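Hello,

Our lab assistant flagged a job as stuck in the queue for most of the afternoon. It eventually completed. Since we weren't sure the result was trustworthy after the delay, we are filing this so someone can double-check. Below is the sequence as submitted and the structure that was eventually returned. Let us know if re-running is recommended.
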Amino acid sequence: MTKQAMTAARLKQEVENRGTSSHFFTRSTMRYFGDTMANYGVKTAPVTVCRYDGTTAECWELFRRKAVQPSGLSSSAFFDINTFERVIPKEGEQ
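-- returned structure --
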């Protein structure tokens, strides 16, 4: 069996099904930031992210295709490839 590529929709499903504490994909959060699922993509290969406590984690990088208006928010979000918990990178490590 071939391994499926990670997509934004599949990542959202995994985050919700694993019972993580993340509210990243909730309708109210996305509305607040002016985002839609169509604006998201996932990098094809996991990236290594350094956390605040100095440990590293292999993560899926969820990126915005276009900056969100009116704030211009364009940063990526990172989710652990095993637990699907949100990982906040150390400042300057993105």
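-- support follow-up --
The delay was a queue issue, not a problem with the job. The result is valid. The chain has a mean pLDDT of 88. The two ends are 33 Å apart (CA to CA).
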